[in-house]
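ok posting inputs for the protoporphyrin IX containing FE job
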Amino acid sequence: MDSIFTTIFCILFPIILSTILLKTLLKFLPSGYRKLPLPPGTMGWPYIGETFQLYSQNPNVFFASKVKKFGSIFKTHILGCPCVMISSPAAAKLVLVTKSELFKPTFPASKERMLGKQAIFFHDGAYHAKLRKLVLRAFMPESVKNVIPDIESLAIESLKSWDGGLINTFQEMKTYTFNVALLSIFGKDGIHYREDLKKCYYNLEKGYNSMPINLPGTLFHKAMKARQELAKIIANIIAFRREMKHTYTDLLGSFMGDKEGLTDEQIADNMIGVIFAARDTTASALTWIVKYLAENPSVLQAVTEEQEAIVRSKKESGEESDLSWADTKKMPLTSRVIQETLRVSSILSFTFREAVQDVEFEGYSIPKGWKVLPLFRHIHHSPENYSEPEKFDPSRFEVSPKPNTFMPFGNGTHSCPGNELAKMEILVLVHHMATKYRWCMMGPQTGIQYAPFALPQNGLPIRLSHK
Ligand code: HEM
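and the output
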């Protein structure tokens, strides 16, 4: 018996001793030589990982249970990729801003092909900076100011067409936001091409989330064909503009600027990309606002009073009834409703980045090629950042949120360049909706769809009528 213990001791003792020595040595080695552990977490099933757990329920439940178990940085496996999820505001800032050079934007190859490989989202460095300058030029407040009258016409036209009927809010808002996107990209020229662009874009959309099998008959194939059609229409608009030799202040004008030297293909990829970025996101935000206003009569009342005061003061001073930029600055309460809607609904639950090299991050190692996901939704719904986070309460924005806790438009070099336009088109539509119409929700009102954007169930059917 003794000899068995002696043998075990002789084998185990050196192993234990060398492990302790190695650990101690590693602690004192410079960080470059040290191998940090992977973040804690579980990887789920081979290949499928935990995709189903994330996408089959409210993502808040998935995030909150992981954070409780593993802390604010944890590993998982979704959509066929190993990932690290980041749920603290400070760490999200590191990924998106401070150390953004270590984390590049990443999308599945099929999505890149469909939207166009040269589109702004897929790039970093000099090419990205150049595109971003051009996009920001077209969407900065100075430029957005000029399109307010046209946005207003679109809002009035949309509301009239919904009057008296039962509508699917999200579907109708998509038409409105699509038309506003075309306006800001192609100016008034967009109207001539609206129907053709719409038809192609809808075919592209149908195949966007399909299996990427490019064979005749598949949704993916139809979407790729629709994409080519879109590029052709855009090429025609570009050719027409070259002949006209006018100066245009819309997005296409910004991209066609003489000095920019972009190819027609680069321009088309970016125009399609911007429509994609602008339409469903803003339509989703509008759908949530309609829901929250219907559910919170006192907030709706306050918004209506704020908007009616603007109409009244314009009448009294003999001003034109059209909304001006200055009017939109007199809507602080409505603006807080937009902020709170964006927080609660967190339309983009998270974004994707990829580690460009092995990265040491907050005491963990993130291997090169792993996806890194800052969790906007979790940050917006954490009681550490917002008291009673599930409650819709626009007054919380009377005080600025803590740094890096409010990121509906992202953060850093890839943050949303269209945010001013998005807020403007929402304000204009809410102005006319609250002052002239009433609406009620039809059907179940509690369900939420999450793929890919958070949306009220069935797109929120409502009945809307003139007051
Ligand atoms: C409420 C509506 C909107 C929301 C919530 C939203 C949200 C976002 C977010 C979170 C990002 C950053 C993604 C990332 O870092 O990976 C982004 C990027 C972007 N958004 Fe928006 N967006 C909205 C409306 C718009 C509009 C109206 C436009 C254009 C007219 C637009 C154009 C873009 C573009 C071009 C990018 C990519 C920027 C880059 O990669 O540098 N978005 N958006």
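notes: The longest helix spans residues 264-295. Residues 105, 120-121, 132, 135, 139, 181, 184, 274, 277-278, 281-282, 285, 347-348, 351, 408-410, 414-418, 421-422 surround protoporphyrin IX containing FE (CB under 6 Å).
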